[in-house]
Each structure stands twice: as structure tokens, then as C-alpha cells.
Amino acid sequence: MISFSPTEEQQMIVTMVKQFASDEMRKIYRECDENGEIPDSVIDTAWKMGLISSSIPEDYGGSGGEHSAITGSLIGEELAWGDLSMTMHILCPALFAYPVLEMGSETQRKKYLPLVCDEKYKAATAALIEPRFGFDPYSLSTVAQLDGNEYVLNGEKCYVPLAAEADLLLVYARENGSSQGFIIEKGTKGLDVGEREKNMGIKALATYELSLKNCRVPKENRLGGQKGCDFDRIINCSRVALSAMATGVAKAAFEYSRDYAKERVAFGEPIASRQAIAFMLAEMAIEIDATRLMTWEAAWKLDRKEEATKEASLVKAYADDMVIMVTDRAVQILGGHGYVREHPVELWLRNGRGFVTFDGMAIV
Amino acid sequence: MIDFELSPEQQKGIKAAHEAAKELFRPVSRYYDEHEHESPQELIDNIWKRRSEGLFDLGMDATAALRIEELCWGDAGLFLCIPGPALGGAAVFSSGTREQMERFLGGFNEGAPKWGAMAMTEPGCGSDTAAISATAVRDGDEWVLNGEKIFVTMGKRALEDSDGFVVVWATVDKSAGRAGMKSFVVPAGTPGMRVEKLEKKLGIKASDTVTIIFDNCRIPFENILGSPEVRKTETKGFRGAMATFDATRPIIAAQALGVGRAALDFIKETLENEGIKIHYGTPRQKLTALERDIIEMEANYKAAKLLTLRALWMMSQLQPNSLESSMAKAKAGLAVTKITQKAVEIMGPLGYSRKYLLEKWMRDAKINDIFEGTGQINMLITARRTLNYSRDQLK
After folding, report:
1. B236 falls in which pLDDT band (50, 70, 90)?
2. Are A7 and B1 in contact (CB < 8 Å)?
3. Are residues B363 and B222 located together in one domain of the fold?
4. How many domains does chain B have?
5. Same structural domain for residues A105 and A168?
6. Nearest CA-CA distance, residue A258 and chain B, Å
């Protein structure tokens, strides 16, 4: 039966996350963006909500709730409304945990999942993007080659969130023509974490370049063991997560510019009472809603374990365009005020532009 | 629970409607486009015979919308020729009493085929429906209607070719503004009402669009929908009109979706025959311009469809859906206008030729961004609702 109503449990989670986003994230996001740092205390508070561990079975140290892409989308949107850098930081361990949960071998699940269910936040991450023109997750330049009982990895990665502090990394590489994941523990020889990257947006999130030079990992460290992983699904889950976050960023920009337009008086009237501004806002509202519904539909398919490549890529392409349209208009509605860093809209525009690039940097 | 699963009934309805569209509409689609104002009698007889199947019952919920999309995938103009109370029925349904529903809609499934219509637009007012100048004056047990209505969809079929009715919007007190606006049911054959000027249109040519003149047209007092009272503080009549729109706009959006998908399916079929694949998961910079266009068209179709289903779902949950209905209509009207126009571009000589139906779909699609509230009026409503502004605050 067609329904657009989240479950009661999902509504409770949304309320909790929303509260956190407005009470905690919204208070410090500008400072974090300027300093390039997120206070540990915020991450710890977020971690206590158990957003990741709640979807990991008790056997592996989690609290045994359902792992759902729809729930993940709802969470992603609310958090990203608060701040995108913090969202990606808070949810970073999922980049490692969810693929292991869904596709890892029993040994891998037993060994690694408890590590991301700890009481204290511990970074774990994944490396997908590569620093070159024409990057395509389906034809990676980083390669993994079997040599006896080990895989040897070579290549360059970038936009790896929290790579410097992460104990566990899931590195995607090409092996025999397909993309596969490889679990690499911190300190493995041949794994070199580079300087922290300087990006246009998500400035509070620490991202790094990564280089792999004859980096050797045991054969058992291939995600899913002998079976390998369902890489399509990983990419689809990532695209759905990013679409949800794009919706959150856009919603933040929409609300702020709407409220501003109602306050700001020009020629004796609030600028919102002019169609030039009002119609911009109307279109923003429509496209945000449309993106959210498409995200839900793709997530719904993922939850039913159905093929969702088309839905996930359609919504991601739509969300990429939508978020840049909305955040740009938010800046435009504020005019000169939108361009200065006293207001948040310029930050949302910088963050919004990143979604086309962020493949694999979030997951549901 | 968020769910997109279609019920077995919905799946069955879609399939049957799709088959009917293919079987009944598509073969004669071009003919009735080229022979404007010619009645598709055989088709109507056929539909009438099959009415017990429930396939052509219009309704205003998601199940009906999904069926309507399929039928309009077949032909949007012929879809409008399906016997039934249509928009007139929607108006009776949203502001009439139980007795009125029984009286006006009760006989629609019996005897000869009948149509309903709605008359709102006038030569001097379109989107500004509160500026209506047609008048209704009470005279004892009757209302006396005077005025001119234009662009009445299926007005000829409702009033001249069948024993249907039209719902007319008129003011009972001009000084009262919106509060004075009321709707009245005028049955076919009522003296003082005549159909004039059959419009020649860009598209949906199989449907008729007419002018109706009311010249001291007398109808029973009980034919008013809603209360006859005029209170300056109350704009119930107008709200009745708007409530009708909340229900009908997503249905128009569903009609639009059908036309848009016809164009999309046509392109996809052609590409498949040519051995051209759309690589959905591929990063943007690696896609061809054609792939980008098609992905954009498909995404826009999907966006419009989900907005439409949401508006209808809210209505079925008895939630106010004025905002969501307008969003769906604004999005769907514009999306299919753009999809079909782009489709003609992409298909080149095949798109522009009347040998194929694509150029027709482009012409048909455009009406969806105009009737039942233009894209702009729906944007205005969306803007007012999102800003929480009154009509005076946002003109």
C-alpha cells in the first residue's frame, strides 16, 4: 500500500536527531567551518544516540535494531540540515560498518563490527574516490592483485574522511575487472595517509589523500571473503544517503532564505511578497519535496533488496542539481548579505556543490 | 510505514487500463487528432459497453490516478471523451449534499452515456476566479443565471450530445467578492443555456472545448452546491471551488504523467531498437548528452509522479493537501511540457513528423500546464502556502 508516513519508531528517531541538529550542530557549525574542527564533545553526544550501532545485531555488539535505508535517509536528512561536515563525521564509521554488516564474511563481521559498536566514538572509514579526471567507481585505478595468501594494493585515493584517525579502512580497488573492498588496519605497511585536504566546503570534516604502495593485506581481508561484495549495492546505498543529505542541506538553505525574505523590506514591502522572490522559494520547496520522495522510493527498494541502480542514480542526479539550485538561490535571495560569512547560506552553497563529488562518502 | 508497493488491485487496474489504452485509444489516436470535432462514437460505445469493468471509473484517489495515467498514455484527448461526470462530478462531490450527489450523479451509469463539465473561466477572467462576473439571482424557488463561460472542457458532450450537466460558478452578490461566489448545477436542456463556439485547439483535439451562454437561465433553488448564504467574513463558496481543485489538480497531474510517459516510452523503445543503452550508474562526466537528457527527463517524470501520489495519499488520509496538490500540478504540468518538447528534439525527423504520435503528445502535454490552474497560479499558491501569506500579502 502506498504510504508516505514514517513508522512511529522512525518518527521518534527523527525527533531525536532533529533536536540534536538544532540544539548542538546549529550552535557551532560556523565556528567549526572556520576552524576546520569539530569538538569531540559533539561527536560523543551524537554517538550516544546509537545511530549506527542500533542497526547492528546484538551478536556483533550492536543493539539489534533493523538496518533500514529508509531510516538512514531520514537520519541523513535531519543531520545534514544541522551541518554536513558534522553529519559526515558522525556517520563516518558506517562507511566501514554497513558494507561489513551486509556483505562481510562471518569472520569479518565477528572481528570488526564490535569495534564500531563501542561506547566511545571510534573512527572507521572507507576510501573510494581517486584524485584524477574522469573518476568512475566502476573502473578504479587503484588495483588489488592476489599474491599467494595476500592481496597487494597499489594506487591513490582522496576525500577519505578521517583517514588519519581511523583504525579501520575499507579501500575499494579494482580486482579482475570488478570493484572490490579490502579491509586495511591502521599502520599496515605501504598505507600512507597524506596531508589533510583543503576543500571548498565541508571544511570542518577532516579528509585525506591516501597512497597505497605495495600494501599487503591477508587474503581474508577482501570484503565478503571469497564471495566478494555487491559493489552496485554499496554505490546505490551511498547515492541514496547523499541524496538524503542533499535534501537536508537544501532544506536548511530554503528555510533560512524564506525567513529572511519575509523580514527583509524593500520598496516598503517584504521581498517575499514579490513574485520574483516568492516563485523562487516555491520552486525550491517543490524540488526539495520531490527529491525527498525519490530518495525514499530508492531507499524502499534497497530495503526490499531489489535492484535499485536506476532509482538511486536518478535521485542522485536529481539531488545534485536540486541542492545547487536551492543553495544558490538562497544566496541570491539574501543578495550581498548572502555572500558574507555572517549568514550561513554561503556555507550551504559551498557544501551543496560538493554532492556531485562525494560518491562513496556516506552510506545508508 | 513508508511504502511504494502497489496493491494487487492497483496493479490489476494499471495493467487493464494500459491494455485498454493500447487497444482502444492508440489505433485511433492520430485519426481524431486530424479530425477535430468528429465524434469517436465507436470508441465511446465500446467504453460504455465495458463500463462494468470499472476501468473507466475516474475517481480521485491513487488507484484511479494510476489508471488515469495509463489511459492518458493511450491518448489524453480521447481520455476526456470517456463518459462520466468528470470535473463537474468532482465539484458536486466536494461541495454537494448527499441528496445532490444522488440526484446529479446517481444516473450516470445508466441509460445512454452522459458527461459532466465545469464552467468557471470567463472572457474577462481566467486564473483570477474570484473576479467572475456571471450572476445568479434568486427568484422565488429558482436561480436565474446570466453570463458567458468559456473554455468549458467537454461542455458540448455534456449539454448537447448527452443528458449531462455543467457546474457553473457565478456570483450571488458582487459586492461580497469571494464570499458571493457560488456554484450551481445546470442540467442539459435547461432553457436559457446554449453552447456556442467550438474551440479549435493546439492539442487534445478529440475533446471538445466550448463557450456556454446563460441568458436568463432558470434552475431550481436546490441546484446550488453549498450554502446560499452570503456572509462577508465567510468565503465558503470560494473555498468550495478551491476544495474541488485540491482533488482535481493531482488528477490532472496524473493525466499529464501519462502523456509524458508515452513520450519517454517511445524514445526508450526507439533507442532499444537502435541498440543504444542508457548507463544509469555511470558518473555524469562520462554520460553522453543523450543519456544526460534522458536521465533528466526520467527523473523529472518520477519527481512529478511521486508528488502526485503524495497529494492523493494525503487526501485519502483526510489531511489538508492544498499545498501538495498545487505542488504536484505545477511540477507535473511543467515537467511533461518539457519532457515532450525535449523528446521531439531528441527524435529529430521522427519527432516532428505526423507519421508518429510524438509531436501530438507534445501538443497534448501543454494543456496540463494550463487547465485546472496554470503552472503560474499553482506556483503562486505554493508560494503563499510555504510563506504563510494571504492573497493580499502575495499578489
Report:
1. low
2. yes
3. no
4. 3
5. no
6. 7
Domain tally for chain A?
Answer: 3
Query: Among residues A60, A88, A116, which one ends one of the domains?
Result: A116
**A61, A53 Cβ separation under 8 angstroms:** yes
- Do the Cβ atoms of A247 and A77 come closer than 8 Å? yes
Cβ pairs A/B, distance under 8 A: 136
Please check whether residue A364 lies inside any domain of the structure. no
Which of B208, B234, B260 is a domain's end point? B234
B354 burial via Cβ count (<10 Å: 0-12, 13-18, 19+): exposed
- Whether B102 and B34 map to the same domain: the answer is no
Q: What is the ipTM of this complex?
A: 0.94
Q: What is the mean pLDDT of residues A148-169?
A: 97
Is the entire prediction scored with pTM above 0.90? yes
- The pLDDT tens digits of the residues spanning B321-334 come to 999 999 999 999 99
| Tens-place pLDDT, residues A91-123 | 999 999 999 999 999 999 999 999 999 999 999
Beta bridge partners of B210: B152, B198
Name residues whose C-beta falls within 8 Å of residue A336's C-beta, 6 or more positions apart in sequence. none
Alpha helix (H) ranges present in chain B?
8-20, 26-34, 41-49, 62-74, 76-80, 86-95, 98-105, 155-159, 236-274, 289-316, 322-347, 349-352, 358-366, 375-387
The per-type count for chain B, helices as H runs and strands as E runs, is 14, 8
Asked if A349 and A246 sit in the same domain, the reply is: yes
Residue B47: domain span: 8-84
**A276 touches B at CB < 8 Å:** no
Average pLDDT on B288-299 reads 97
Please list the residues that pair with A170 across neighbouring strands: A126, A183
* Residue B219 sits in the same domain as residue B107: yes
- B70, B291, B298, B372: the catalytic one is B372
Kindly state whether residues A85 and A134 are assigned to the same domain.
no
